[in-house]
Amino acid sequence: MKITRLFDFLDYQLKNSPRPDCLVTKRHGEWINTSTEEFVNKANAISRGFLNLGVKHGDKIAISTTTNRTEWNLLDIGLQQIGCISVPVYPTISPADYAYIFNDSEVKFAFVSDAELFQKIQSIKDQVPSLVSVYTFDKVDGAPNMNEILDLGSDAGNQHEVEAVKEQVKPEDLVTIIYTSGTTGKPKGVMLSHNNIVSDVLNSDPRVPKFPSEKPKALSFLPVCHIFERMLLYLYIYNGIGIYYAENMETIGDNLKEVHPDVMTVVPRLVEKVYAKIYDKGASAGGIKTKIFMWALGLVENYEPFGEQSFIWKLKHKIADAIVFKKWREGVGGNLTCMVSGSAALSPRLNRMFWGAGIPILEGYGLTETSPVISVNSMDKDGFGIGMVGKPISNVEVKLAEDGEILVKGPNVMMGYYNNPEMTKEVMTEDGYFKTGDIGIFVNGNLKITDRKKEIFKTSGGKYIAPQNIENDFKQSRFIEQIMVVGENEKMPCAILQPSFENIEAWAKAENITLPSSREELVKNAEVNELIQKDISQYNKSLGHWEQIKMFKLTPTEWTIDGGELTPTLKLKRKVVLEKYKDLYKEMYGRFPGE
Q1: Tens digit of pLDDT for each residue in 51-79?
Q2: Co-location of 528 and 487 in the same domain
Q3: How many structural domains comprise the chain?
Q4: What's the rounded Cα separation, in Å, for the pair 374 and 371?
Q5: pLDDT of 328 higher than 90
């Protein structure tokens, strides 16, 4: 069958590879399966329920959930089938941002996962004239529940109406408006059509590796309201891969061992955290165990996937694999064919080590505006490179502007920004290419991202600094949790840095060092600063002298999504961090930018 609309993927799975575990969510300690057939039936019931409620083609329905769960998918397909437009929203945004998004998109109904989100939206309901009602997935006192929609559509007598409406849904129709959280300014509503996302799924499909498992499974935990994870869910459905939802970020380790997934998507920060835990365990084992662990790390530190290795190296690696790396793989479920990384650049050193440990990571690249995949590595020599994001996917054209900016044209490029034709025009070239805002180069046909165009800055000496690459190097330190390189129009680059309090405390305990109990005092402690300076000096060696971090200041607070320093995909909100810690900036430079 030909797939032209997103809900066609579900019909495709039903006909070609139905699963008893199409969608799986853990509730009260038990994994609850939803089969492909049940998925279809419940999505149809939701479609019928909405029709009976008077919901029409083109109505906007918001969805916000604290964790990924089956209800999201049921609602997503149920809405698509009757031509509704979903507005997925991050649960962590402020009430003011909810009000802005709901008013801008004229949301008619909102669906939320739990009592906390229900109260959050109820608090701004009076500010949104278009909002009729807020439904919940969990049972919440005083709130209408999603089961009411299912009950309203329980009689399949008007299924023919659903089928008739489905026929009217066109590939070019708007299917979702995704508001990018961004790092500055008001959220922008990215309009994506069925064809935008369908084309991205089908053109990415050749990069999906072959899985040894007869019935492969995926573990999903990245926010499904983000187009990266959402697009991959459609790809999983198309490939007959079972989707298992992790309970939350804290339980991923346990969930990996319970599910034994074949594939999962990650962001670099998660890989860094996983490695930090592995390193701490190996480094603290003591005696011969620590020596073997460090030897194994050294063996793969410069590993080159698909490269030629000597017989002696292979022999050493076989020993290291049996003693050390096998345990790494068991720690991530023992079945992973690969992890797919997006959102930001992954440290090349970490990528080499995970490949060397038998846990391949494939980096990809894209934006919400491109549905999202532009390019992605594949599991073969020609389509892979450490530090690269692979070759562009089929039917997507990529070229570089004179200043190196990556320009993209293809069926995956958005319809435009909702209610903002001026901004849409700003990001498109006259010959129809989307301006990504990223700087890149091609290496043997593979794309390499060098930095964000807007983040590159110049020192007072006229030297250009690309902060993201420098930050990725320093975050390899187990004592550095987050770091932001600063110094625009200053004589030298410096850094505002959030230390890894957990690892510093573990180090102090191992060294019998007593640290101050308050974090405000801890970040001023001479021994802590000397510890971090040692790593700063080490990583500085690989940088040009003009790029090296000359001074740093530690923050006593953690940088979080809720705190506003990070986006939901864990990218730095540079302006927020700079404003929040401007006193530290002044300590380094004697003034604040603009003063």
Answers
A1: 999 999 999 999 999 999 999 999 999 99
A2: yes
A3: 3
A4: 8
A5: yes
User: Residue 247 in 3-state DSSP?
Assistant: coil
Q: Structural domain of residue 347, as residue ranges?
A: 263-452
**Band of pLDDT at residue 183, cut at 50, 70 and 90:** very low
Distance between CA 169 and CA 11 in Å, rounded?
Answer: 15
User: Taking Cα atoms as reference points, which of 82, 144, 84, 85 lies closest to residue 112?
Assistant: 144
Does one domain contain both 301 and 431? Answer: yes
Which domain CATH number covers 48?
3.40.50.980
Give CA–CA dist 132/125, Å, rounded. 9
Quick check: is 390 in a domain?
yes
- Pairing type for strands 107-112 and 60-64 reads parallel
Predicted model pTM: 0.85
- Span 170-182, pLDDT tens digits: 999 999 999 986 5
Tokens standing for 574? 């540079």
Residue 138 has pLDDT above 80, yes or no: yes
Give dist(CA 488, CA 593) in Å, integer: 8
Residue of higher predicted confidence among 517 and 61:
61
Sequence-distant (≥ 6) Cβ neighbours of residue 422 within 8 angstroms? none
Is the pLDDT assigned to residue 497 strictly greater than 50? yes
Q: Any residues with CB less than 8 A from the CB of 310 and at least 6 apart, and which?
A: none
Same domain, 60 and 150: yes
Q: Tell me the helix, strand and coil percentages in the chain, rounded to 5.
A: 40, 20, 40
Q: What single-letter amino acid sits at 6?
A: L
Which amino acid belongs to residue 562? D
370 and 495 both lie in a single domain: no
Q: Which residues contact 451 (CB under 8 A, 6 or more apart)?
A: 438, 439, 466, 467, 468, 469
First to last CA, the chain: 63
Whether 542 is covered by a domain: the verdict is yes
Which of residues 452, 469, 498 is at a domain's end?
452
Q: Which residue's entry shows tokens 């939802």?
A: 245
Q: Are residues 294 and 389 in the same domain?
A: yes
- The mean pLDDT value of the chain amounts to 93
Q: Given this model, what pLDDT does residue 118 score?
A: 97
Same domain, 462 and 398: no
- Kind and range of the H or E run holding 447: strand 446-452
Number of neighbours of residue 527 by Cβ within 10 angstroms: 14
Q: Within 13 Å of residue 84, how many CA atoms lie on the same side as its CB?
A: 31
The rounded distance, in Å, linking the Cα atoms of 256 and 252 is 6
Asked whether residue 365 falls in the same domain as residue 395, the answer is: yes
Q: Which residue has the tokens 């165990």?
A: 289
Average pLDDT over residues 497-511: 91
CB atoms within 10 A of CB 204: 27
Task: Give residue for tokens 């492909």.
Answer: 36
> Are 282 and 426 found together in one domain?
yes
CATH value at residue 293: 3.40.50.12780
3-state secondary structure of 297: helix
Q: Please compute the mean of the pLDDT values over residues 241-251 and round it to a whole number.
A: 92
